[in-house]
Amino acid sequence: ELNVDIKDKWLNMFNKVIKGEHLLVEESYTNKEGKIITIEVSLHPIILENGSITGVSYFSRDITERAQYEK
């Protein structure tokens, strides 16, 4: 289960996107095996033809190797 801080952080990001912002974020987490993984997440509003926002689209990818190389 996610801790409250992570839930609040993601809720805040989704709220920004629902208002029309596009976000690209990098997040690092520790998996169940204790390994740190880094993901890149792209969040975009889903906009209908009439201009209203109906939801959030998000895509993520594992960028752990790139993040380690950049260090």
Explain what you see:
- With 71 residues, this protein is α+β, with helices and mostly antiparallel strands.
- Helix content is 31%, strand content 42%.
- It has a 3-stranded antiparallel beta sheet with strand order 1-2-3.
- Strand 1 and strand 2 (36-47) form a beta hairpin.
- The N and C termini lie far apart (29 Å).
The chain-level mean pLDDT equals 91
By secondary-structure content and strand pairing, the structural class works out as alpha+beta
Helix content: 25-40%
Percent of residues in beta strands?
A: 35-45%
**Uncertain spans:** none
Number of strands: 3
Q: For the largest sheet, list the strands in their spatial order.
A: 1-2-3
What is Rg?
14 Å
Span between N and C termini? 29 Å
Q: What sequence of helices (H) and strands (E) makes up the elements?
A: HEEEH
> What does the main sheet amount to?
3 strands, antiparallel
Global morphology: elongated
Q: Number of helix segments?
A: 2
Annotation keywords:
71 residues, alpha+beta
Write the layout of secondary structure elements.
Blueprint: H1 4-18, E1 23-30, E2 36-47, E3 53-62, H2 64-70
Antiparallel strand pairs: 1-2, 2-3
Quick synopsis:
By secondary structure, the protein is α+β, with helices and mostly antiparallel strands.
